[in-house]
Amino acid sequence: MNIAAVILNQVAGKRHETVLRESIEKRCGVPVLGVVPRQRRNFFPERHLGLVPPEESEDISGPLDRAAARMSEYLDIETLWKLAAEAPALVCPPQRTAPLSGLARGEVKIGIIRDSAFQFYYPENLEALEEEARLLS
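The structure corresponding to this sequence follows.
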């Protein structure tokens, strides 16, 4: 894996930054493009189970603007864009797993709970389940 640069996150202070930079830049030869200090409060609204998802937030533009402004203070955005533009395209060959064997049609039902406690799912996982169901039908 070719790591072009790193961004340090949740850095406790100058001494912590120095130790991390020395370890990464001098010993690994990888540049540090920015250091994000620990934040006293999160940019985004939170609740007992973590962040409030954008679809449940009235206006996400304010927190996004605040986060972007802070990151522009801490990160070398110009170099980050340059590295991103120079990076080779990701090649991810499709990995097809064999469909589940031995299942009769309609034998398996999967329920997906969506309420205030259970509401976060990776869309690609749901899409993979739908694809498998389509292949089995």
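The chain has a mean pLDDT of 84.
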